[in-house]
Structures are given as structure tokens and as C-alpha cells.
TrEMBL record:
It comes from Pontibaca methylaminivorans. PANTHER family: MAJOR FACILITATOR SUPERFAMILY (PTHR23502), POLYAMINE TRANSPORTER 2-RELATED (PTHR23502:SF132). Its main location: membrane. InterPro entries: Efflux_drug-R_Bcr/CmlA, MFS, MFS_dom, MFS_trans_sf, Sugar_transporter_CS. GO terms for cellular component: plasma membrane. SUPFAM superfamilies: MFS general substrate transporter. Residues 19-414 form the Major facilitator superfamily (MFS) profile domain. This is Bcr/CflA family efflux transporter. GO terms for biological process: xenobiotic detoxification by transmembrane export across the plasma membrane. It is a multi-pass membrane protein. The chain crosses the membrane at residues 60-76, 88-107, 113-134, 146-168, 174-196, 225-249, 261-279, 291-311, 323-343, 355-374, 380-399.
Length: 414
């Protein structure tokens, strides 16, 4: 057996969780990342004044959050392959909760920046381990259905987070946001302790750097994995990029208050929610694989709608309309392409999930950093989001042209 292999618990001895339980716990794990970002974004202009700093420094708080989230995933997934899912999610959520409390009490912008980076580190385990747990127990369309249900549940948190964040900033102050995040981190620790059953057997040999290197080498040299992961990175990475740009468009350019910004963001997550519901209904008659191309069509249409922002005056309808179309398409792409990317790697599911998440967040980090170089955030959105749509579409075409895998069971979604 390869050093990169992970020993899943035998079906006869491992307690198996129901699809509903996996979906609920998985959605809670995944939600920590978007909540840590979406709950905070309405407070960004307030943070500028609170620390007497610049917009550039406050934008850096998002960049550092992305960086911590992206790079820590490369560690969180593989060590969960080696030590088990439960202890790693508990440890990382502890980091998230402690960092949230540090952010609330930060005496300076420098301490606040460090806290945001550590928040990203802590949140990183959520997305990596949730997908690995699904892959540990489910395959094919069963896996896609769970990924879809996680998406439906997940859509609720980011939909409500900016609205709640805006109201809290307006009536209670920005520090309260981070106290709420502290409580959320503690909640996940409690749910993990009482609700999550272990899905892999611990093997300390997998902590060796050579074993870790072999796992990632296997993934990055797999065209099947890389093209599927790039499809997702282009689709979802654009959503992360939008999160770094939108506060400065809606509040800076259009003059929205934090509460109004939060209400406007419901249009984004509401579109993703509706798309996820549509996918759930369509999957009763079609495989998840058949829904990817239509989803990319919506993403392309959303990308073109962003291009139109190069002309005329930006309005709420033009901006959020483009985002809504894009987000609707993302809901069609995620379930099958996530399943397809992970399917051939059951024994290194944590590493595969981590690398896929790293590519998504990395895309958001890179494009968000590039966007910060633009003086005009509308111009940044009009140029960068269509590029992400192009990456998603071309990567999917390349993935479809690959030779048929040897085992359909291992490469569900093709």
C-alpha cells in the first residue's frame, strides 16, 4: 500500500452516518469559512475608522483571511487522513474561536490582521474535511446529492450573514461580530464531539513529509483531478473574488449603509440557493454530470453581464443581476465536479479535498489581490470575473476530452 494511502474504516466495524447527518454536519463545517468572511464584510468601512487606518490595510484583512484559509487547507486535509477527521476539525475550530476572540479585543490594526489570518487558518479545515467525510462514505450520484444538499443548507448562512453583520455593526458595533464567530466556532466543536463519527482509521505514518509529498504529487500530475479542480476554482473562486470587491462597490461607489449592503447580498446567496434547489429537482430525472454544462452556460452569461459594466453607470440591478446569474450557475457545477475530482482518490480524500479547496481559495486570493490594485472596483469586477468564467469553461472542456477512466465506479460524474 502506498504511503499516501488512507485506510478507511471497514464498513463492518465503522458506524455509518446517514446521508442527512453527513449533509447537516458537512454544511456546518463548510459554513464557517463563508460566515467568517460574509459576517465581517459589512464592517469593513467601520474598521477603517475604528483603527484610524486606510482602506488598503482593511482590504488586507480579507487577503490574509484568504491566505490563511487557502494554505492551511494543504495541511488540514492530509493530517486528517493520518489522524482522523474528528480531532483535526476540533483543533482547527478551536483556533478559529480563539482568533475570533482576539479580533474582537484587538488593540491595533496589526493585531487585528494577525487575528484574521489565524481565523482563516482555523476555518480551513471545515471545507477540506467536510468533503473528505462525504467521499469516505458515498460515491457517484449519492455523493453529488449530498454535495447538493450541503449547498442548499450552506446557502442559508452566507445569505443571512451579511444582513446580520450589517445590523450588528449598525446597532451593536463591529466587535460583536467576532464574538458571534467565537460562539460559532464553539458550536462546531460541540457538534463534532457529539454528532460526528470517525470515518478513517488513524495511521501516524502518513504524517511523514515524504508520504505527504507523494499524495500531492499524485494529485497535481493527474489531469483528471487538475481539470476538474480548475473548473471549480474558476466557478467558485469568482464568488470569493466578488467578496473582496463588492463592499467597495456597493458601500463606496453606490453609498449603501452596512445594513443595506447586507440586504443586497441576499440576491447573491439567494440565487445560489435557488440554483441548488433546481439541481435537486433535476437530479430526480438526470445525472448530476448532465447539469454541469448548463451551469457553465449561466456562468458565462454572468461573466458577460460583468463585461457590460465597462459601459454606462453601475447600478444595483446591473451589479447584483450579474452576480445572481453567475451564482445560479455555480450551484449546477459544484456537486458533480466536486464528486468527480475526489472520486479516483478514496485513500487520500483529505489531501484531494484540501488541494481542491486551496485552488478555489487561491483563485480568490490572487484575483482579490489583483483587484486591490485597481483604483476603480467596478472596473476590477468587469475585467476579473469574466476571466474566472473563462477558466471554468475551458477547464471543463479539457476535462471532458480526457480518455474515459478505467472504472466508472471510481470516477463517478464522468
Amino acid at each position: 500500500m502506498s504511503l499516501a494511502d488512507t485506510t478507511m474504516l471497514p464498513a463492518s466495524s465503522a458506524p455509518r452516518m446517514s446521508a442527512l447527518r453527513v449533509s447537516l454536519i458537512g454544511a456546518l463545517f463548510v459554513a464557517i469559512g463563508p460566515v467568517g468572511m460574509a459576517l465581517y464584510t459589512p464592517a469593513m468601512p467601520e474598521i477603517v475608522h475604528a483603527f484610524g487606518t486606510t482602506q488598503g490595510m482593511v482590504k488586507m484583512t480579507l487577503t490574509l483571511y484568504f491566505a490563511g484559509f487557502a494554505f492551511a487547507q494543504l495541511i488540514a486535509g492530509p493530517i486528517s487522513d493520518a489522524l482522523g477527521r474528528r480531532p483535526i476539525i476540533t483543533a482547527f475550530m478551536g483556533i478559529f474561536g480563539a482568533a475570533s476572540l482576539l479580533a474582537a479585543l484587538a488593540p491595533s490594526i496589526e493585531v487585528f490582521l494577525a487575528a484574521r489570518f489565524l481565523q482563516g487558518v482555523g476555518a480551513s479545515a471545515g471545507i477540506a474535511i467536510s468533503r473528505a467525510i462525504v467521499r469516505d462514505q458515498f460515491q457517484g450520484d449519492d455523493s453529488s446529492r449530498i454535495m447538493n444538499l450541503i449547498g442548499i443548507i450552506l446557502a442559508i448562512a452566507p445569505a443571512l450573514a451579511p444582513t446580520i453583520g450589517g445590523l450588528l455593526v449598525t446597532y451593536a458595533g463591529w466587535q460583536v461580530l467576532f464574538l458571534v464567530m467565537t460562539v460559532f466556532g464553539a458550536l462546531i466543536v460541540i457538534v463534532t464531539h457529539f454528532g460526528l463519527q470517525e470515518t478513517v482509521a488513524a495511521d501516524f505514518h502518513r504524517l511523514r513529509l515524504r508520504a505527504l509529498g507523494r499524495s500531492y504529487r499524485e494529485l497535481v500530475t493527474s489531469r483528471h483531478f487538475m481539470y476538474a479542480a480548475l473548473t471549480i476554482a474558476g466557478a467558485l473562486g469568482a464568488v470569493y473574488t466578488q467578496a473582496t470587491i463588492l463592499p467597495f462597490i456597493l458601500m463606496g461607489e453606490l453609498g449603501f449603509t452596512p445594513a443595506q449592503f447586507g440586504m443586497a447580498m441576499i440576491l447573491q446567496t439567494g440565487s445560489f440557493f435557488l440554483g441548488s434547489l433546481a439541481v435537486r429537482q433535476l437530479m430526480k430525472r438526470h445525472s448530476a454530470a448532465r447539469l454541469v454544462a448548463p451551469g457553465l452556460g449561466f456562468i458565462a452569461a454572468g461573466g458577460l453581464a460583468f463585461v457590460t459594466l465597462l459601459w454606462g453607470t453601475p447600478t444595483l440591478l446591473r451589479i447584483m443581476g450579474a452576480i445572481g446569474i453567475y451564482s445560479f450557475g455555480v450551484a449546477f457545477v459544484m456537486p458533480d465536479m466536486t464528486t468527480a475530482a475526489l472520486a479516483p482518490f478514496p485513500r487520500i480524500a483529505g489531501a484531494a479535498s484540501s488541494l481542491m479547496g486551496f485552488m478555489q481559495m487561491g483563485a480568490g486570493l490572487v484575483m482579490g489581490s489583483v483587484a486591490a490594485l485597481f483604483a476603480d472596483p467596478v472596473l476590477a469586477a468587469a475585467l476579473l470575473i469574466p476571466v474566472m468564467a473563462l477558466v471554468a469553461g475551458t477547464s471543463y472542456i479539457a476535462w471532458r476530452r480526457l480518455p474515459a477512466p478505467a472504472s466508472k465506479e471510481e470516477t463517478a460524474g464522468t
